[in-house]
Amino acid sequence: MSSFPSIAIASGKGGTGKTTVAVHLAAWLAGRGEAVQYLDCDVEEPNGHLFLKPVIETAEPAAIPVPVVDNDRCTACGKCAAACEFNAVAMLKKPMVFTELCHGCGACTLVCPVEAIREEPRGIGTVETGQAGPIRFAQGRLNVGEPMSPPLIRAVKNRRDPAAIALFDSPPGTSCPVIAAVRAADFIVLVTEPSPFGLHDLTLAVETFRPMDLPFGVVVNRADPADLRVQDFCRQQEIPVLAELPDDRRVAETYARGELLFDRLPEWRDRMAELWARIEERL
Amino acid sequence: MKELVVISGKGGTGKTSLTASFAALARKAVFADCDVDAADLHLILQPEVRRREAFVSGREAAIREADCAGCGRCAALCRFEAVSAVARDSDGARVFQIDPAACEGCGVCTWNCPATAIDFPERTCGEWFVSATRHGPMVHARLAPGAENSGKLVSLVREQAREAATESNRDLVLVDGPPGTGCPVIAAVTGADAILVVTEPTVSGYHDLSRVLQLAAHFRIPAAVCVNKWDIHPEMADRIEEHARSAGAVPVGRVRYGPEATDAQRRKLAVVEAGDSPLATDIRAVWQNWLDSTAESGEKKSP
User: Is B33 on the interface with A (CB under 8 A)?
Assistant: First the structure.
């Protein structure tokens, strides 16, 4: 276990500002002299690199083990197909493997009575690591056309540096990829926006994270004093509001160019300082 | 029957806002919300649920603590880091527990447990609905929090929407898709007639668009591209359309940045239902251009 905390930045709805919060928090922490690592777990659409502009030092394929049947040894007993819960092995004359359905659980290999099945890695994406100035950087890139992201997310998280604060930039939604990304984090920052869609997806995210027994708080991005429903919801649910980042077209324009906000909007340094203070008091 | 799917790659680019407007503009269509783990289309279309079904898919392993002998074979075999040891209160011996959030339902632990202490019940992963809206029938769903199998639920929603279209004699299924490029997106686009990628003129929008257009090419689906909030960064909007063309996709228009989208959302209306606005004009043009482009590609496909 690391004595440095790990923080997952997540959201129900996409496009609420997860990456904006994660990269600015990373940059602010690094500027303060903290050891910090940014890990992009949004492996379907990793975007943090566009803002942090890391120098990539290592790139390794991530794979899941899939079965290969030795037809000479196979007695066609059919146990492998029966054991597979994902319909990835079908019994014809001999077993036929549909690798894109395989979760790599090892059931077929384990159940085969004549050891006719061995496993070979099937690449699903790439894990890259590098350095963005003082910020340690890791990201996963899922192969296009590849459905299964959780194994790659786990591979990215295995690159966690125990000697640094870890920020996990998570995918949107509430299903298995998000769970893989936030699991074992010390704290979850949920980024939302004050629109009906934002509020609705926040309620789904809260339902998802509550049973996981992980502390979490909310950042209201594009905050609008005319719409306080998110803040009201958080008060009712006793969820801390960690920061309110005001709606500002200049933020959207600066983000569009892939630039960090600190030069054009120096008050964002104070906002990150305040956000970090609120997170830290809850760790 | 034609099946048109709206996706985005990057989340939050305005997929659902646009789809809601398209629903208001479409004639004789059925709507399918395939963003099953963060569904929002119902907040605008306000469906009246007519049919409600549980979505049961896969299984989940659970250890009966009383029968667990603490051998740890389950933890050694599990490839999903779902099994962990906990101390038993009474005698201090270790027992094992399965984290339901991490269990993928492969069953390996269940049939390898020497004490047969692991149950393997079916898992209810959510619900799906067939509803009526002011613009036509709608099929939608709700994935259980943290659940697996979102791709299967997406396929089910699409299948039910096609059925609803046949029953109600409608010739168009309009699908609101999920963000990303993974399992639910693949389930939302495979076999569809055309996709529209709603993007934004940002470095992320550009990056994610190029991945999603590779996906469209991979599955050989004709793709159109709409740049939402284009005036945030006009040069990037130009670059995105240029890139779309070079990737074989058709740019079908731009929608400007404006508060009308969120205002309409707060009134539970699609932008085109919320009165005349420049945004509404932009969206009407995008819808018409997309329909025209799918008609052309349809002609090309069938000689």
Answer: no
CA distance to A117, A274, B257, B261, B275, per residue, from B267 (Å): 59, 34, 19, 10, 12
- Buried-state track B105-121, b at ≥16 Cβ within 10 A, e below 16: bbbbbbebbeeebbebe
Contact A123, A144 (CB under 8 A): no
Q: What pTM did the predictor assign?
A: 0.94
Evaluate if residue B299 carries a pLDDT over 90: no
Interchain CB contact of B8 with A (< 8 Å): yes
pLDDT band at residue A107 using 50, 70 and 90 as cut-offs: very high
Are B130 and B51 a contacting pair, CB within 8 Å?
Answer: yes
The percentage of residues in chain A with a pLDDT greater than 90, rounded to a whole number, is: 95
Quick check: B245 and B211 in contact, CB under 8 A?
A: no
Nearest beta carbon to residue B16 from set A51, A197, A212: A197
Structure tokens at B31: 């709507």
B166-182: buried (b, 16+ CB within 10 Å) or exposed (e) per residue? Answer: eeeebebbbbbbbbbbb
Contact B146 A179 (CB under 8 A): yes
Which residues contact residue A120 at a Cβ distance below 8 angstroms, ignoring those fewer than 6 apart?
A65, A66, A68
**Residue numbers in A near B36 (CB within 8 A):** 175
Pairing outcome for strands A241-246 and A216-223: parallel
> Residue A256: which of B13, B112, B203 has the nearest Cβ?
B203
Q: What is the ipTM of this complex?
A: 0.91
How far is it, in rounded angstroms, from Cα A222 to Cα A248?
Answer: 7
Q: Which helix (H) or strand (E) holds A243?
A: strand A241-246
In residues, how long is chain B?
Answer: 303
CB B146 within 8 A of CB A178: yes
- Are A174 and B143 within 8 A, CB to CB? yes
Question: Cα–Cα–Cα angle for B85, B89, B91, nearest 5°?
Answer: 95
